[in-house]
Amino acid sequence: MFTDNPYERFDFLEWWGTLSPTFLSVTVIAFVFLLAAVYYLLPKRHRWVSLLAGSAVFYCLAGIRPLVTVLLSAFVVYCAGLLLETTDKAFKKRRRLILWSAAGILLLVLAYGKLYTLLDLKFGYIIPLGISYYTFSAIGYLADVYWGKEKAEWNYCKLALFLLFFPKILQGPIARHRTLAAQLNEGHDFAYRDFCFGLQLAVWGYFKKMVIADRIAIFTGTVCSDYSKYGGIFLLITFSLSVVQLYCDFSGCMDIAGGIAQMFGIRLEKNFDHPFFSKSAAEFWRRWHVTLGTWFKDYVYMPITINPTLLRLSGRISKRWGRRAGRIFLTVIPLSAVWILTGVWHGTGLSYVVWGVYWGALIILSSVLTPEIKKLNERLHIDVTKKGWQMFQMVRTFLLFCIGRVITVPGDLAATGRILKKMAMDLRPWQLTDGTLYMQGLDWKEFVLLLMMIGVLWFVEIQQIKGSLRERIAGWNMAVRCAFYAWSVVFILIFGIYGIGYDISSFVYMQY
Amino acid sequence: MEEKILNLLSEEYPEIDFTSSDELVDDGILDSLTITGIIAALTMEFGITIPYEEIVEENFNSVAGMAAMVQRLL
């Protein structure tokens, strides 16, 4: 692109082609600061226009055609929203037809995008970035308008901004129109505190992604390329690290997205709430990918649950086999639907269906068997309020998540079976001390650094639970604060992973 | 009405104190599974159909909220 000849013309299109829509690119970071400057310089009532233009430019980094697909989808949502708003509620069938038609179109585009790679479909179609996220946001918006919980948006450009808003388009959070739209449309005054807190959050996200997640990725990538060489304990460590990797990758991106949004005075919904402190599978999924869980709860679980036929059936079961049986029925049906759909959302292929069934079974069983579990704890004299027991519950939940990773990461269920068998019967503990550990892309120094950084992550998470860490940092002396910020950035630059072969476009959850 | 609902819910969920808060949902005392059970119990007891528009936090945050909702739907 740039040559020694200073007179050679700068090729804009060639340069544009080298960019990708990721927060890890220096050009994109510079773009965010430029956009923030434009945003705050514009008159308040026009500030949303700069966000729309900025979001469109950001999305264009993936190409023009994906942007056209999103804008067309937004047009479908816009028309359907207005039709729902203006059709009298007495015409129930007509309104239902509008909702299902629009949702059907959006889901068809999503399904095609999902099957595109699986079935090797080639019709010159490029899967739009973040298609799952904006599709779910759009369906949620339409359902809310249908139920009368939300007013339809009459300005197409404002609706397009809600769907396209650049910090959340890559990996979510799955935004709700009622919480985000008003924030996007009103112009925010520059607030030093918000801007500064936003930057801090983004830097913490970069730390999680570049220092921890991408460092672990080297190790897990090497091991996962050939599982057969390793024993059960080694694989258990690998999958435990892969869980931390996924968390740092995904929540790191959420912190960057949330931080960038906060620089514009906009609060995105929280997507992670310290999930590794969860004491059960159900609690874990209330803390991990929160917006996906609440989306499924509001738009799948609840509508199925209050279906009159299901409630009637539950009533009949209660009368015949007792109240508990009725309640179990009402728990199993909607939760099964939710978890199979959650599995399909996460990926195509049988592994993901099995993964959904696995989590669904865990959550349903723990809910249905609550009285028996309580009795068992009493019989075994387990004090559930003791810290030791709660620690055990947290470790157990972590291991359950590891098993979930073993189901999806290998790509086929036969390999999953082989890995689980090794974890149970072929331990080979000597691989931890014979140097194998340090031959998977990370030498011992890198490994020690990684463990220290995971320790920092753990410490910060505990501090965050105790109270806002950012508030505490804001209370420090100005000079100390500035030195700390500078040190943090330099630390990430030095210890972040971005060497040869580093793919800056690869956030794990971007594939959805 | 309030008393009738309180008795019904206390019988269904003896482990939950429904009078402890006016923000049962927001305080995390009721999760989605419990709300499902409450909807089923109210539907069967009063013979009502609870439309989705009514499933909002305000209607389940307290026994008074639930009673007001049931009154509307009767």
Number of helical segments of chain B?
4
User: What average pLDDT do the residues of chain B reach?
Assistant: 86
> What series of H and E elements makes up the topology of chain A?
HHHHHHHHHHHHHHHHHHHHHH
Number of strands of chain B: 0
Overall residue-averaged pLDDT value of chain A = 88
Structural class of chain B: mainly alpha
The percent range for strand residues of chain B is under 5%
Main beta-sheet strand count, sense and barrel state of chain A: none
Summarize the SSE layout with pairings.
The complex is a heterodimer of chains A (512) and B (74).
Chain A: H1 12-17, H2 26-41, H3 47-60, H4 64-86, H5 92-118, H6 131-147, H7 156-164, H8 166-169, H9 177-185, H10 192-224, H11 232-263, H12 281-287, H13 290-305, H14 308-321, H15 323-346, H16 350-368, H17 370-379, H18 387-408, H19 413-425, H20 444-466, H21 469-474, H22 478-495
Helix pairs in contact in A: 2-3, 3-7, 4-5, 4-6, 4-7, 5-6, 7-9, 10-11, 10-20, 10-22, 11-18, 11-19, 13-15, 14-15, 15-16, 16-18, 18-19
Chain B: H1 2-12, H2 32-46, H3 57-60, H4 63-73
Can you walk through the features of this model?
The complex is a heterodimer of chains A (512) and B (74). By secondary structure, chain A is mainly alpha-helical. Chain A has 22 helices and no strands. Chain A has helices at 12-17, 26-41, 47-60, 64-86, 92-118, 131-147, 156-164, 166-169, 177-185, 192-224, 232-263, 281-287, 290-305, 308-321, 323-346, 350-368, 370-379, 387-408, 413-425, 444-466, 469-474, 478-495. In chain A, helix 10 (192-224) runs parallel beside helix 22. Chain A is globular. The model of chain A has no long low-confidence stretch (mean pLDDT 88). Chain B has one domain (2-73): Non-ribosomal Peptide Synthetase Peptidyl Carrier Protein, Chain A, CATH 1.10.1200.10. Chain B is built from four helices and no strands. In chain B, helix 1 (2-12) packs across helix 2 (32-46). Chains A and B meet through helix 13, helix 14 and helix 15 of A and helix 2 of B.
